[in-house]
Inverse folding.
């Protein structure tokens, strides 16, 4: 007997990969379950595939980041943030009624946005280096559930 994808999630035996996060300019946010990573999990953890290089040399295009929903980021932590329907992955620095979003790569600009317009989708917890490597090691299970 084998657990369904939903069973793995409910049992805390997998982390859902729910889409992609731009590491670059803010881009439209799209969320779609792409697969599961069979690692012990809590219900508030989810994974995103990094696209872009604003966080390079630290986070690379194609890496999979696991973030935690529902926690407040500490100053300087990496977070997936949403602003006006667009998302990005950056270091976050709350400054009064503003939020500063800084890239790791100096080729990208620092963003200063009103805090009331920024939603933290998740705070970075750990990295899995390269989606292709995960697939090769069979650590990324395809979401095969049919609705």
């Amino acid at each position: 007997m084998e657990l369904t994808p939903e069973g793995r999630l409910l049992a805390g035996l997998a982390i859902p990969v729910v889409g992609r996060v731009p590491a670059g300019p803010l881009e439209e946010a799209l969320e779609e379950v792409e697969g599961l990573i069979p690692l012990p999990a809590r219900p508030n953890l989810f994974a995103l595939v990094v696209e872009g290089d604003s966080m390079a040399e630290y986070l690379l295009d194609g890496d999979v980041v696991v973030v935690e929903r529902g926690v407040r980021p500490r100053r300087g932590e990496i977070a997936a943030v949403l602003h006006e329907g667009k998302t990005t992955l950056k270091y976050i620095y709350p400054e009064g009624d503003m939020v500063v979003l800084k890239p790791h790569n100096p080729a990208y600009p620092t963003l200063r946005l009103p805090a009331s317009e920024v939603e933290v989708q998740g705070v970075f917890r750990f990295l899995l280096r390269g989606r292709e490597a995960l697939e090769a090691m069979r650590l990324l299970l395809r979401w095969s559930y049919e609705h």
